[in-house]
Amino acid sequence: MQKSNKSIAGYHLLMILSSVDGEFAPEEGMLVQQYLADEFPFKMDLDNELEVIALLQPEEWKGHFEFHAQCFFDDSTEQERLNFIQFAKTLIKADNIVTDEEHTFYTLLKNLWKI
């Protein structure tokens, strides 16, 4: 896999976090849109990124997630990671249900970043 920059890596992380429970809730979609607006103030074509994520099989999610967590880590400050973790927490709570899968991936991210 080719290394991603922080913003693209964050997109991958959020999309996996919002999909691991088998449902992409509208509330989660709104938060991902907010992230995109904040990270990409200019028009960005993420169709290729979305296709990569959509083609992942559930058994591939963890490895993909870990890879992009490392990409984000490499290009971010500690404060950016803390802000992202808080945003990720808001994302998994957006539909008022935090599944075991969402919690597992959220915890994985915190552990990978030693937060």
Count the helices. How many? 6
Shape: globular
Q: Could you give the order of the helices and strands?
A: HHHHHH
Number of strands: 0
Q: Largest beta sheet, briefly?
A: none
What fraction strand?
under 5%
Calculate Rg over CA atoms: 13 Å
Classify the helix fraction into a percent range.
55-70%
N-to-C terminal Cα separation, in Å?
25 Å
Mean pLDDT: 92
Structural class: mainly alpha
Low-confidence stretches: none
Count of the separate structural domains? 1
Protein name: Tellurite resistance protein TerB
Organism: Chryseobacterium soldanellicola
Description of the molecule:
This is Tellurite resistance protein TerB. The protein is globular, with a radius of gyration of 13 Å. It has one domain (6-112). The protein starts with 5 loop residues before the first helix and ends with a helix. The model has no long low-confidence stretch (mean pLDDT 92). By secondary structure, the chain is mostly helical. It has helices spanning 6-19, 26-39, 47-54, 61-74, 78-93, 100-112. It has 6 helices and no strands.
